[in-house]
Write a structure and sequence with these properties.
With 231 residues, the protein is mainly α. It is built from 11 helices and no strands. The two termini are 15 Å apart.
Length: 231
């Protein structure tokens, strides 16, 4: 199983950004995970950054077990590590952590997007039967979380672009909705670094969607998401 996507609010810098920048000890877990997911083509480098992010998140949780940001980044780090190492235990642990985050904070769009990405990414990669049987992935849970993340995301391109990429991969014939979301993403105000990155990614995908080429758009979307061009 190759690394399927899961964007968390963590979800998500792009290969379109350019050369990878080094991960420094002072970087936050979120910054390290963004750099791992989008800032390098090298698996060993990505894993080192994921490990550093995990250690940073766990240190923050040792200081404050209720730290929402640390909980989210820890779950993302475990999920990313599980993807790159093809480790089922990590992937299942990440799913359980995402579910716990959504249960404790049902209005948090980042946690919802992480849960959506985990479930729907597994289905995209493995198919619905194998994803459910092997990992416990559920399409209904993923779609509900995805739609809520977009609604609660406050107009951030991160959420609308991610939804566009995910929908077109789930169903390459769903061009109209994926296009609507991508066009919304490019029109929204990009307030953060990751918003700007995802907005550029949506702009990259739009020509294929406007041409009605769902299969090519789905293939391109898989490259635009975390670890899409990892060697």
């Amino acid at each position: 199983m190759r690394a399927y996507h899961c964007l968390s609010a963590a979800l998500a810098i792009s290969c379109a950004v350019g050369a990878a920048s080094p991960a420094w000890a002072g970087d936050t877990p979120r910054e390290l995970l963004i750099s791992a997911a989008f800032g390098t083509h090298d698996k060993a480098v990505a894993l080192a950054r994921i490990d550093a992010a995990l250690k940073g998140a766990e240190a923050a949780l040792a200081r404050n077990p209720r730290d929402r940001e640390a909980r989210l980044q820890r779950a993302m780090a475990i999920s990313y590590r599980g993807k790159l190492n093809r480790n089922r235990s990590d992937l299942v642990a990440a799913r359980e952590s995402f579910e716990a985050l959504v249960k404790s904070q049902p209005g948090d769009p980042e946690s919802l997007m992480a849960l959506a990405g985990w479930n729907l990414g597994a289905i995209i990669e493995l198919g619905p039967f194998m994803a459910r049987a092997g990992l416990g992935a559920r399409k209904a849970q993923g779609m509900q979380a995805l739609d809520r993340a977009v609604v609660l995301g406050g107009g951030h391109p991160l959420f609308t672009a991610f939804a566009s990429f995910t929908r077109i991969q789930l169903d390459p014939s769903d061009v109209a909705e994926s296009r609507r979301l991508a066009e919304l993403a490019v029109s929204q105000i990009a307030a953060t670094q990751i918003d700007r990155i995802m907005q550029r990614q949506a702009a990259t995908l739009l020509p294929l969607l406007r041409a009605g080429n769902g299969r090519a758009a789905a293939k391109t979307a898989s490259i635009l998401l975390p670890f899409g061009r990892l060697q």
